[in-house]
Amino acid sequence: MPRPPHVERGTAILALFAGALVIGVAPVLVRFADAGPVTVAFWRLLFSLPLLTMLVRRSPDGVGRPSRLAGLAGVAFALDLAFWHNGIANTSVGKATVLGNLTPVVVTAMSWIVLKQRPTRLFLLATGLAIGGAWTMAMAKGLGSVGPNPLLGDALSLAAAFWYALYFMAVSAARRVEGTARIMFWSALTGAPLLLASGALLGERIYPVTTAGWAACVGLGVMHVVGQGAIAWALGRLPAATAAVTVLVQPVVSVLLGWLLFNEIFGVWQSVGAAVALTGVMLAQWAGRTEHLPEPASRASRT
């Protein structure tokens, strides 16, 4: 018997929060991985493929063929990782993650224009609060001076937000007709060679040189399957704009870890920003509690 809509939505929101908490660790692992920023992204996708292969083979719809939407998701995610990892290398972990996750603006606009999913005024207010809080965390005095080239890192991280938004939209659309495992598998298989070729063309160091570096890359692969997998699953049950606001929990985690592990500043304004961002996330969920849920994939594909 199918679960009531409020139970379905609640489960999807919990999955989103869990996925956001997991991927909040990603910037820290990128810092520990001692290879080039783009090639670290390649290793992330490569090490995710064994787990994804096992999952997709066990899924009801199997491996199948790559769809255009899964391919688009792979290209968009590869570009997101390439820009974001270079942003992390040039500015603070917290700032790169906050700026790279300002996707709700783009996703909300695209959902409104392309999918005709008009947001409520309360949802727009919640989005503004979440983004404003995240921006306060990023721009608070002292945080912007961290890193070898903060200005470049900021610009790259902002560019990553656009590609992450495109990834969100592609996965959200694909989830209407495909299962999570198949989308994750084909998007990783599409993005990995693009990242390897880009890293080689940029002259980056391809292989990590320490055991800790390899461990970080393996950890990124596992984190990708668990974190992004949970988000992709939830995108089949929630509007893309609502999901994009929810994953702003990720920068809060990253800023806290940056403070604990790399002595990045976490003062009063960072605390205020975190509180405002989380308030906006919760308000967005309240505003979206009656939103139309996307039509999920067929029962055979609901994985």
Secondary structure category: mainly alpha
Give unreliable regions as ranges.
290-303
Largest sheet: none
Mean pLDDT: 79
Range of helix content: over 70%
What is the count of β-strands?
0
Percent strand? under 5%
What overall geometry do the principal axes of the alpha carbons give?
A: globular
* Rg computed from alpha carbons, rounded to a whole number of angstroms: 18 Å
What letter string, H or E per element, gives the SSE order? HHHHHHHHHHHHH
Taking the alpha carbons of the first and last residues, their distance comes to 17 Å
Q: What is the number of helices?
A: 13
Number of domains: 1
Q: Would you give an account of this structure?
A:
This protein has helices at 5-23, 26-32, 37-58, 68-90, 93-100, 103-113, 121-139, 150-174, 180-201, 211-235, 240-246, 249-262, 268-287. The chain is mainly alpha-helical and 303 residues long. The protein has one domain. The protein is globular, with a radius of gyration of 18 Å.
